[in-house]
Design brief:
By secondary structure, the protein is an alpha/beta fold. It contains 7 helices and 9 strands; from the N terminus they run E-E-H-H-E-E-E-H-E-E-H-H-E-H-E-H. It has a single domain, classed as Zn-dependent exopeptidases (Aminopeptidase, 3-Layer(aba) Sandwich), CATH 3.40.630.40. 39% of the residues are buried.
Length: 257
């Protein structure tokens, strides 16, 4: 039996200095885990299983930036590649009100097995791509659900997450807020433009992907969170990539980083 790889890298020979990453790209449950996680198709199509629309945005963004990208090919519910190996939420047993049956009794040996099969190969390849050039800029793409269960609707169209390294994120947020194209996009959907600074999540978890591959090496970085209802379709994904690519490029040029 030939098993599918846990990640895919694209455009490794492109000349751009960006590395676009998508940690939660798909909702695939690999054969090594079983036929499923004990969840129905409806739950596996939700944000709990993957970042809806993020893969399409990542692919198009990497193409527009003429830069490589890497993405996982397993559900975040199998094991979360954006968590450190010691993070208690590495293998989620409950997520946004949904119990994950296949994870309820996952012990330390099962977590280790999943680390070896999926998590570590992805991060090894991620680091190889980062190390290919000294001036790499990591651009991680995620999406967030418009509303968690029993919570208020989230007002942001886009959020930019960062930890203590705000060399790129601070000027990028300012550029987003000043963007007439983004203001027009918000107006088109009947909203005012709301850019999240470490919203809807805090921008730093010790051992997460940005911490591991960017902060520990002094590499420029940002993490983009797009509201998933804006990028559910291929057209929406291409549109948002086209909105963001020139702002990313211009910010890098203007800052001289």
């Amino acid at each position: 039996m030939t098993l599918s790889p846990p990640y895919h890298a694209l455009g490794e020979n492109r000349s751009g200095r960006w590395l676009v990453t998508c940690d939660h790209a798909t909702n695939r449950v690999p054969e090594e885990i079983g036929p499923d996680l004990g969840l129905g198709a409806k739950d596996m199509a939700r944000h709990i299983a993957y970042d809806i629309g993020a893969l399409g945005v990542s692919r198009e963004l990497a193409r527009l930036l003429d830069s490589p990208m890497i993405h996982t090919d397993f559900s975040r519910l199998v094991i979360d590649p954006n968590r450190g190996e010691d993070d208690p939420t590495l293998v989620m047993k409950l997520y946004d009100g949904t119990i994950i049956p296949a994870n309820r009794h996952a012990d330390a040996s099962e977590v280790e097995r999943r680390l070896e099969l999926f998590h570590r190969p992805y991060h090894d390849a991620y680091e190889t791509l980062c190390a290919a050039r000294d001036d790499v800029v990591i651009c991680a793409v995620h999406s967030f659900t418009p509303q968690l269960k029993n919570r208020p609707r989230r007002p942001w169209q886009i959020g930019i997450l960062s930890a203590y390294d705000k060399r790129f994120t601070a000027p990028f947020i300012a550029a987003l807020e000043a963007s007439e194209a983004l203001k027009a996009e918000a107006d088109k959907i009947g909203e005012r433009l709301v850019i999240g600074d470490n919203e809807p999540y805090d921008g730093h978890l010790p051992g997460d992907a940005i911490d591991r591959h960017a902060l520990h090496h002094g590499r420029l970085n940002l993490l983009i969170e797009l509201r998933s209802d804006l990028i559910e379709t291929p057209e929406g994904q291409a549109h948002w990539a086209a909105l963001l690519a020139p702002i990313l490029t211009d910010t890098l040029k203007q800052t001289g980083l």
